[in-house]
Structures are given as C-alpha cells and as structure tokens.
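Let us work through a complete example step by step.
Step 1: write down the sequence.
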Amino acid sequence: MKKLFSVSLLVILIAYFNCSNKSDAPEDTGIQKINDSLKIRTMMVSYKSGNDTVNAYLAIPDGEGLFPGLIVIHEWWGLTDWIKETADSFADDGYAALAVDLYRGKSTSNPNEAAELSGSVPKERAITDLKAAYNYLKNLPGVDSEKIGSIGWCMGGGYSLQAALNIPELSACIIAYGRLTDDPNEVKKINCPVLGIFAEKDPNITPEKVHTFENLLKNEGKENHIIIYPDVSHAFMNPGNKKGYDESTANEAWNQIFTFLDDNLSE
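Step 2: predict the structure and record it as tokens.
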C-alpha cells in the first residue's frame, strides 16, 4: 500500500455524508485521509457499544454510494497495519469496510502478549461490539443497510462466525481459519451464506473440525462454500507470518473472498 496523506482538518466526510438522508449517522473522530492510488477515503471513527466506546478504522470508496458494508475483524495481534490494509483493499473494491478494535487500542507482535490479549476479551463484550459495528455501518450514509457482511482471520474468524450467529440480518460471513462450532442448535441461527477458508496443516482448526462444521451447515440447509487448502498451516494469508505465509495460496484465497463478496453483497 502507498502511504496515505492527510488533508486539511476542514476536509472531513461532510460532503460525502450529504449524499444520503440517514440523519442518525455516527460522527467521525479523526481526520479524513485520501489514498489517490486506491481511490478510497480512510479515517479512525468511534461508536457506542453498550456503555463502552469502541474505536475502528473506516475505509470507504471515494465516491457516492450506496456501498455494501463489511465488518473486518482482526487476528489476536489486534488492529494492525495489515488489517487496515485489508480494509483498504475492500474499499478499493467498492465496500465500506469497518475494521473494529476489540482490544480497546492495544496491539502486539509478541505471541505471548497476543494470547493474553485474546484471552482477556469477554466473549459477550466482543459480540456486543460486533452488533454495534453492524449498526454503525447500517446507519452510515452511503452504505446499503441491507448488504452488510463480516470477515475475520484466526481469532477474528471465530468472531466473524459469532457475528453470523448473533446478527440475523447479516448478509454474508467469511471465516478464515477461525474457531468453529459443532452445535447444530447454533448453526440453525445462521441466516447468510458462509465462506470458510481453512488450512490442511492447521493444528487447532483441524480438517476434522472443519468437516464437522461443513456437515452441520449442509444438514441445516445453510448456503456455504468451505475450502481446506492443502500443504499450508494456520495464518497462511498474513504476509507477516514469516514461517507460514504462502503467497500463491493466499492469492487464491483472496480470489475466493472477493468472488464470494461480489456474489453476496454487490449483486
């Protein structure tokens, strides 16, 4: 990604937001930035989640909507530059991407700290944050309130599934090597198509667990496309994963992701 550059404090999303009649839209909390090479606008925003205030990174196409919306959920490292860059890529493809911060401003590159951070997040609080993120996008001018999906990797993949389980109106769900469920009563709650991206050599989200989840989806008549990529392990899509990143497989997974989004959110 090329470096984003700041514009004047006076140049915020007012003109962009005026293209819609949604009067209850949340306000931004940051300076708008424009990436000319990608034709997108980015900024840090905040929204209410219960009694808390959650920060998030918003990337939107540079133009008038309506744009489909996408909740982007980070790995256990937190809201890193890579997650923001993925949000930029989604915006460049025509989506309003909201990368949520479940860690309340914390991030790390240390796996021990990441384990502590992920373990410190109460599940119900995270689900509340995702519901609030959905409502943020739903009420954001320029966003198609009937076309909002979720995507996440690793820890975020598990929470993308939780979004599908807890937000009945969600239009699409992408799980990239995230924690799954083997409870048929939970799977019954899913109302949207599911894309699953998994790794054959993942020691935790094993092919056996993936097949169990896939069979539950099929048994409940849930639209799904589950892929287990051979000869790769967990987190193979993140280029920061020096030991496990696989560029060619990651590119194939990205093709599947954008095709799935185009089929379920853009049409």
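Step 3: interpret the result. Residues 149 and 171 are 5 Å apart (CA to CA).
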